[in-house]
Amino acid sequence: MNALAARRRHPAAIAILLLLGLVAVGGAYSLLAPRQADASVVAAGDLSKGKALFLANCATCHGMNAQGSSAGPTLVGVGAASVDFQVGTGRMPLAGPNVQAQRNDNVKFSQEEIQDMAAYVASLAPGPAVPNSEYTEGQNADVARGGELFRVNCAMCHNYAGSGGALTRGKYAPSLKGVEGKYIYEAMVTGPQSMPVFNDANISPENKNDIIAYLQATQEEQKVGGMDLGNLGPVSEGLFIWVFGLGIMLGCAFWLGQKAA
């Protein structure tokens, strides 16, 4: 009986084994997990200046501590990439309530001020950082692969050529023509408006660069068919034929009728 009791496991043995297993799994994951391209880029900027700019321009809607309010969502955890995208494209600050924030070429803040605000928001909680230019310029990319990924993941909203399209309830997917690669990448990792988030687990940084290269290629390619009508597909083409083609045919019929009379 005493020998059996001596061989009996200590009550804490199972807990210790589980703890050791968790430590081993965590250590292995930290070594083998895929590298996040945007995590290596530290938000550059002056935190104190960024906070002052935030309080003067953003806190009215997003709250004094960026916790959000009825007028605007929380910014805790959105990362520097979200600030760089929204402010850098002139979407923020909004002039007033609207269904969707539109791109505005008249950007209110300088690039340095945007970096300061991005650094402040990034300091509140972890989030996507501004991507490295290695993945935003479409260099050394696979355009064919980018086209395949774009058609599978993006074309249903943005059109196969990135011309944009209508969504529900007055919203729309904006045109991607002329949009800088950095902003396309940031939109993918932050998911602005109705757009889903495509993090590195969904689409790798290299594949995001492929998509950017494909969009650049579609804008630079020669239009061998003549007028592209915005690459909007059969709707715009049908409207063109209905208005101009049918109009010409009616004009010819009227002219022939008048001549016969």
Chain-wise SSE layout:
Elements: H1 2-7, H2 13-32, H3 47-57, H4 59-62, H5 79-88, H6 111-124, H7 143-153, H8 155-158, E1 165-166, E2 172-173, H9 181-190, H10 205-220, H11 234-260
Antiparallel strand pairs: 1-2
Helix pairs in contact: 3-6, 5-6, 5-9, 7-10, 9-10
Enzyme class: translocase
EC number: 7.1.1.8
Protein name: Cytochrome bc1 complex cytochrome c subunit
Structure description:
By secondary structure, the chain is mainly alpha-helical. Among the domains are: 47-124, Orthogonal Bundle (Cytochrome Bc1 Complex, Chain D, domain 2); 135-220, Cytochrome c-like domain (Cytochrome Bc1 Complex, Chain D, domain 2). The protein is built from eleven helices and two strands, in the order H-H-H-H-H-H-H-H-E-E-H-H-H. It has helices spanning 2-7, 13-32, 47-57, 59-62, 79-88, 111-124, 143-153, 155-158, 181-190, 205-220, 234-260, and strands at 165-166, 172-173. The chain has a two-stranded antiparallel ribbon. A hairpin with a 5-residue loop joins strand 1 (165-166) and strand 2. Helix 5 (79-88) runs antiparallel to helix 6 (111-124) and helix 9 packs across helix 10. The longest helix has 27 residues, at 234-260. The protein is elongated. Mean pLDDT is 84; it is low at 34-42.
